[in-house]
Specification:
alpha+beta; Aminopeptidase; about 300 residues; 12-stranded mixed beta sheet; 8 helices; single chain
Length: about 300
């Protein structure tokens, strides 16, 4: 049997669906849908030199990779490659061929440092380390069964604070963009990025096909959004993509208020599974999620390799 690597065919619905399916099998804690895949492809800037790769064995998609340059970093030469192979199709050479193809492309485009998320399992970590990658920080995936137990009571906003949703800002979401940019700047990361392009945010984030504006909670104080919890949904699954608070309003429990409100509405709307993710060092957010009933269901490790 022969394994080959090629680029994803975005105009072929079956090819996109197969790519998303492999991602779902390998990493079921994230919402992988063909619509989300096509949205990402359509809105990734050309300067990212991005490619979506497929590993194919006798016509069957068994592995995938998303690769590119961190185009919005002030430090040039930062690249990423995230490789996932079907759990029942490993040890056939797909992962190694995807990594080799990705590295050749990224170094040709000027990358001098490569980052990759790797599932924290012995075989996967050994695979990365054998290719010269060094272990860095880790991040957890967390899950909550929304069908188990009694729904928590709706949270009550403190005096002077109002709970709203992203749908209330549909006419002009610029204030949400400003809040998102501020909180993203403080997210744990290996690579510094600059989040300043409002039009790109509208296209990539605000118009994302899985964004649920009615379930995205926004805490308003002093007449402006000061905390939020972003919700993505697909079928019966609900995912919190980002929860954050403006710097001047931290330490008041507003992030927990936003997330609890969104979670309560998701349960009431019939969603049965809640998923989220946190950097392993983000103790405040991990404590909030633990208090809401989430449990760790998986872990990824960030690996890095410097290349000549």
């Amino acid at each position: 049997m022969t394994v080959l690597v090629r680029d994803l065919r975005p105009d072929d619905p079956a090819d996109v669906a197969a790519f998303a399916h492999v991602r779902h099998l390998a990493l079921p804690y994230i919402l992988w849908t063909p619509e989300a895949m096509l949205h990402r492809l359509a809105h990734t800037p050309a300067e990212a030199r991005s490619r979506s790769l497929v590993a194919e064995e006798d016509g069957e998609t068994i592995g995938t990779a998303q690769i590119g340059l961190v185009h919005d970093s002030p430090e040039p030469g930062q690249g990423y490659l995230n490789v996932y192979v079907r759990p029942d199709r490993t040890r056939r050479g797909a992962g190694g061929l995807l990594v080799r193809t990705a590295e050749e492309h990224l170094t040709a485009e000027g990358a001098t440092r490569l980052y990759s998320w790797v599932l924290d399992e012995p075989a996967n970590c050994s695979f990365a380390e054998a290719r010269g990658y060094r272990r860095r920080r880790s991040a957890h995936f967390l899950r909550l069964d929304l069908t188990d137990g009694t729904p928590p009571p709706p949270p009550t906003a403190p005096p002077g604070v109002e709970l709203r949703t992203a749908a209330d800002f549909a006419a002009d979401p610029r204030l949400l963009f400003a809040l998102d940019a501020e909180t993203m700047a403080d997210e744990p990361s290996d690579v510094e990025t600059e989040f300043t392009d409002y039009e790109a945010w509208l296209a990539e984030t605000w118009r994302h096909p899985l964004l649920n504006r009615e379930l995205t909670s926004v805490v308003v104080a002093d007449g402006r959004p000061v905390a939020f919890s972003v919700a993505y949904t697909d079928g019966t699954r609900y995912v919190t993509a980002m929860t954050g608070t403006a710097r001047a309003f931290r330490g008041r429990g507003l992030a927990k208020l936003a997330k609890a409100a969104s979670l309560h509405r998701a349960r009431a709307a019939g969603y049965t599974e809640a998923l989220t993710g946190n950097d392993a060092g983000n103790d405040p957010m991990l404590a909030i999620n633990k208090g809401l009933g989430y449990e760790i269901c998986g872990t990824e490790v960030r690996y890095v390799r410097d290349v000549a």
